[in-house]
Structure formats: structure tokens, C-alpha cells
Amino acid sequence: MCKKLKQENDPLKRNLEEVLQNKVSEPPRPGKVHPLNDRRFQMVDLIPGSRVFVYANTIEQASKRASGTGCAACLLNAFYTNEELKGKNLEKTGANGKSAFDPDILNSII
What we know:
With 110 residues, this protein is mainly alpha-helical. The chain has helices at 2-23, 35-40, 56-63, 68-79, 82-86, 103-109; strands spanning 31-32, 43-45, 52-55, 88-89, 99-100. Strand 2 (43-45) and strand 3 form a beta hairpin. The model has no long low-confidence stretch (mean pLDDT 85).
């Protein structure tokens, strides 16, 4: 039964990948990106294996900051707009009516 489902699933998965690859025409924002798009738009893992992607120039800009705080701020600005940042806090569960940052993104920055 499992083997039969896998055989049925594999062609569907390939078709979906082709559709997704052809559908996305503009570069995605940094963050959690579909594996097809990270390669297509030449994005890199912020931390190898994290599946949190940025563009190489973002890493270059962040590394030029004078302090770790400046580097982290640069990366946060890559992942979130100013409006999104206003509604976030560093608590993992969210507090004061604000939502928490995505833990995968935050852990990749830290």
C-alpha cells in the first residue's frame, strides 16, 4: 500500500515543483523559502541547514556592521518590514499584545 502511494505521489510532486517554479516570477523575501525558489533566486542559508534564506548581499551588509547588535538589526530588517517589527517582541510566546518573531528566523540571527 505505501509503495503504491509513493509511486502515485512522486509524479504529482514533480508536477507541483514544475508549477511552483514557473509560477513564482519575482524574488521572494528573505525567510523560509520553498526549496525550489532558494536555488532559483540564488539565496543562501543564513546558517547552513536552518532553511532560513537570505540573499548574499544581505550577509555582506550585515557583516560590515560595527557591532553584533548592528548586524542583528540589519538581518531583522531583511526579514521584516518596519511595520512588522513594530508589532513584534523578543518573547518566544509573544507578550503585551505583540506577536513573537518566527523562532527559526530569530535563532538563525542569534
